[in-house]
Amino acid sequence: MKLSVGLKVANSLSLTPQLQQAIRLLQLSSLELEQEIQIQLDSNPLLEKVEDLSTIESLSSLKESEAEQKDLTNELNADHLPDDLPVDTDWDDVYTHQPTSLGAAEYEEREDNRHGHQSLQAHMLEQINLLHFSLVEQLIARCIVDSLDNKGFLDCEISEITSSVQHLLNTMGYEEEIEDDEVQVVLKHIQRLEPVGVGSRNLAECLLVQLEGLPAQLPYRYEAVLLMKHYELLVSNDIQKLMKQTGLNADQLKSAVELLKTLKAHPGIEFEDRESDYQIPDVVVMKKNEHWFVQLNPDVVPKLRVNAFYAGMIRRADQSDDNQYLRNQMLEAKNFIKSIDERHKTLLKVATCIVEHQKGFLETGPEGMKPLVLRDIAEEVELHESTVSRVTTNKYMLTPRGLFELKYFFSSHVGTTSGGEASSTAIRAKIKKLIAEENIRKPLSDNTIAGMLKEEGIDVARRTVAKYRESLHIPSSSDRKVLI
């Protein structure tokens, strides 16, 4: 074998730190990007955020007010004070007149009536403290309250509460024995506090406690209590057997069910913290002159630049440590700004391509959704599928039909009788519409829905309809059937 030395030219892709940074920024959400930018601003002195014009104007007005304040101080320090001293406020700036028939005040002062969120446990303890409970009963009540779930139901067995109370009593040096009956008595008192039914072990007990708290002369209260004794038949919607065992006719049964619907199925749900996790859109879509336009949300687009003061301190021929530090920081700042810019360009390019494909959804709603996969967008924008996947993850688009994640516009397809394709999202919307318009006494079966879709040219099997129906959390036809 002969050994030789030669040169070979080949192309290869290496993940440089700049490329790694660009890929990482590409998959960040708007909130994560804001946090990353703040980290870079704190660590790199050559990177700064461009302030808004309003901030600059406020700073200039602040300087003018400081100059006026200095002039006022000089006049007050003079030997002879003038008759009319300058003031920085007018009478009209302080005095607020009462509204009359000639006009109303521009701003009306209102008392802030907002209050903090109170948990279910805190609400129950406030009421328990007003009851004439002994020390042991207070301890039992607190253990019960600590065992409530978010819906207000008791999330453990009576024996577990008894064991917990007994352990606490032994820890405090009490030798008193606790039985399950004592816990049951305290639980009965708690169930009749506000909201009524809290501490119940299941839905049937919760509704029954609320019925017992209603006036005895209330119409159909007795019939509703009778229904709750056959709760299993009511849940299974076995109307004929329910009427036979309770002895109620159809009208009485219907009125009793209407009374049950007025009760609270989950008494503790109103105490849940309803603060929503709002999503900020990355892209905004709007229609102008019969054309759809896509633009980045200016509120989430950062305005960054290199600090001119520190950049001017860099000297070309200086090789000192300080000068080298400034050079490295300026290079990192430029690379970061470039990566941010590339991120937004890629996001805008992908979002524009998605809107071009899904104009039917924007015009008509989910039924107009077209089948779309990542490969289709990747080929059009000349990017890799993995890049498109990173761009569409945790990015949101604001449309006239609502706020959607970019992933929402991608869906699988089902063949049609004409040889075309239909989006699974559009099929789900059609199924939901058909069920919403059905006769509740004769609900549509999955086989019937499949036949109706086939008449519209969508060839789907019954099991596919069942899968889509279950993904929409819609019960089967037998569970949807209502006879009263």
Automatic annotation (TrEMBL):
Q: Does the keyword DNA-binding apply?
A: yes
> Is-annotated flag, keyword Transferase?
yes
Q: Which UniProt keywords apply?
A: DNA-binding, DNA-directed RNA polymerase, Nucleotidyltransferase, Sigma factor, Transcription, Transcription regulation, Transferase
PROSITE patterns in the record: SIGMA54_1, SIGMA54_2, SIGMA54_3
Q: Which domain of life is it from?
A: Bacteria
The cross-references to InterPro entries, in alphabetical order and at most eight, read:
RNA_pol_sigma_54, RNA_pol_sigma_54_core-bd, RNA_pol_sigma_54_DNA-bd, RpoN_core-bd_sf
Q: Where is the RNA polymerase sigma factor 54 core-binding domain?
A: 114-310
Write out the transmembrane intervals: none
The GO terms describing molecular function are: DNA-directed RNA polymerase activity
**Residue ranges annotated for the RNA polymerase sigma factor 54 DNA-binding domain, each copy included:** 324-481
PANTHER family listed in its UniProt record: RNA POLYMERASE SIGMA-54 FACTOR (PTHR32248)
What protein family is recorded?
A: Belongs to the sigma-54 factor family.
State what this protein does. Sigma factors are initiation factors that promote the attachment of RNA polymerase to specific initiation sites and are then released.
What is the name of the protein in this document? RNA polymerase sigma-54 factor
Lineage here is: Bacteria, Pseudomonadati, Pseudomonadota, Gammaproteobacteria, Moraxellales
